[in-house]
Amino acid sequence: MFWIFAILLVLACLGVLAFGLRGPARPSAGADGPDAERAFFRHQLEGIDRDMEAGRLSSEEATAAKAELAREVMLHEKETAGKKGGMSGRTVMLAILPVAAVVSLGLYAWIGRADLPGLPLAGREQPAQISVSDIEAAVATVEAQMEQTPDDVRGWLVLAPIYMEQGRFAEAANAWRRVLSLEPPTADRETNLAEALILGSDGVADDEAMTLLRSAVEADPIHVRSRFYLAGQLTQTGQYEEAVALWDELLGLATGDEAWVDTARSGLVAAQAGLESGTLGDSEPDATMDVMIRGMVDGLAARLYDEGGSATEWIQLVRSRIELDGADAARADLERGLAALSGQERLALEDFGREAGLME
User: Which residue range(s) make up the domain with 238?
Assistant: First the structure.
């Protein structure tokens, strides 16, 4: 019954289109001829691309469809070459319509699922739930791809933040090293590698991490996150004079409204106390770990504000804001994320916002 209905529907559509194409030709030269033919085939090609992007065709199926379309184009050009005056665009359309119908029905018969029941509308509006196993499977897929294309920087840029989120700091460090080896270093990426090294060493920066942080500070005179990390490490290791100067420099970059200002002031107090007494007293605020956590969160926020990101990254930022700065600050980041995202990504962030009690 379904196929009878489908075929009748296609025939009805063909009839309507054919009737419309039988009308008198417009005098304009651009209404038919080679331009119209090319436009038709271009439309077919765009349709294949849309089907691939929507997941209705795999990349292999799309390639095969494009190859078949190219064959049709070459065959058509061969048949029409040398004909006096050539065929009109209307004639081409009439000739192609049956082919398009047959291809459409055949393609649906190949990949369609007419046997599946209709999905209720309420069910369609529910965002897909991403499980841990889905994420792990996606990571495994990217990792397998990177074994084949180890110089593809995009893959490492995908993997490195995921490794950080999962607490796989050694693997994150290796991924950021690959990024730095493939493209010119930036303050953000050098700090990202230093961050992975520090967190992988329980908050202690080795020589490599310190070198990276100093390089990032020198490369970008207004880079906040690298200065946070470096000032905190200098305070922790007793290099108080340099730490005080760096805390002052960092506070000089603030307008006063930033959430990290209080943490930086605490770091400055700790470094000044160490400079005066030669060591940090038990009663002095050692804000090193708070500084590193704040540096991570503010660095993520700065990147998402400037470049955007995935729903997972916005959720990570909002969750961190709840812990560090409370619901109001988290709600502000949630609103930014919702404005930046769309589709399923936006729905996922909305769900998290409701679960966290930040929105109704």
Answer: 132-296
